Amino acid sequence: MNFLRNEEPYLRITEYLKYKNSMRKENEKWNISAMKPMPSFLYANKKVDIGGTVSLLTGSSVAKRGVTNFDGNSLVKGRVFVASGITMKYAIADANTGEQDVAYSLSQMPNVLMQSTLVVKQKNEILIELPISDMLASTENGNHYFKLGSFALLEDDTITEIEIQYPEGARLDLETGKALFASARLSGFVTYQKR
Predict the structure, then answer these.
(1) CB atoms within 10 A of CB 168
(2) How many Cα neighbours within 13 Å face the side chain of 2?
(3) What is the pLDDT of residue 141?
(4) Which of 101, 88, 66 is nearest to 165 (CA)?
(5) What span, in angstroms and rounded, lies between the C-alpha atoms of 89 and 105?
(6) What pLDDT is stored for residue 165 in this prediction?
(7) pTM: predicted TM-score of the whole model, two decimal places
(8) CA neighbor of 105 nearest in space, from 151, 148, 136, 149
(9) Mean residue pLDDT across the chain
C-alpha cells in the first residue's frame, strides 16, 4: 500500500513548514518533528459596522464555537496555520442576534461589501489582501473558497488582524433593528502536537 497516495497537500505543507522553520532564528525554531499538520479551518464571525476599516478580531475575542476559533486575536502557542484558501460570507439579521445564530451566505451579497477588501495581517505584514468580489467570483464554479496562489503562514502566539476595508463613502440602508454580519473563513492545515 502506498501511504503517499492522495497525500500531496500534506507533503506540500510539511515541506513548506520545514522551509519556513529554516528561516527562523535558532531560539525561535519550531520542533517540526513534533508537529502534525491536519486539514482545518479558521474563522471569525462578527456583527460589523459599515464604513472605514472594521476588524473581525480583537484582543477580547474569545474562542467560541460558531463565533471564532481564534483565542483573542492569535493562535495558541505551538499551533501554526498554513492557509491555502479563503472565503467571505455575510448575513443581515436582527441586531441582537448572536454571531453563532446567523445563517451566513455567499449569495446576493450587498454591493458595499462586495466592493470592499479583506485583509489578513500579522506583525504589520499583509499576508492576504483580496477584493471580496474577486474571492466570491471563484464560487461560480462550485468552489466555496478562493484558492490562494501561494501559502499564507499564520504564526502562533502572534497578533492576527482580519479586516474589512470598505470603499470611501460606503453605506448600506438596513431596516430598523437589522445589522450586517460578516464571516471570514480560511482553509488550510493547522499543526497539532504528535503523541
Answers:
(1) 6
(2) 5
(3) 60
(4) 88
(5) 5
(6) 97
(7) 0.88
(8) 136
(9) 88
pLDDT, tens digit, 9 for 90 and up, residues 86-122? 999 999 999 999 999 999 998 889 999 999 999 999 9
Q: Which residues pair with 92 in a beta bridge?
A: 180
Domain map (residue ranges) of the chain: 42-190
Residue 115 has which C-alpha cell? 466592493
What is the Cα gyration radius of the chain? 18
Q: Within 10 A of 53 (CB to CB), how many other CB atoms are there? A: 13
Q: What is the pLDDT of residue 195?
A: 64
Whether the pLDDT of residue 68 is over 70: the answer is yes
- Report the alpha-carbon distance of residue 53 to residue 74 in Å, rounded: 19
Sheet holding 81-94, edge to edge: 35-48, 178-193, 81-94, 146-154
Residue listed under C-alpha cell 479586516? 163
Per-residue burial over 61-78, b if 16 or more Cβ lie within 10 Å, else e, is beeeeebbbbebbbbeee
Cell numbers at 24, concatenated? 527562523
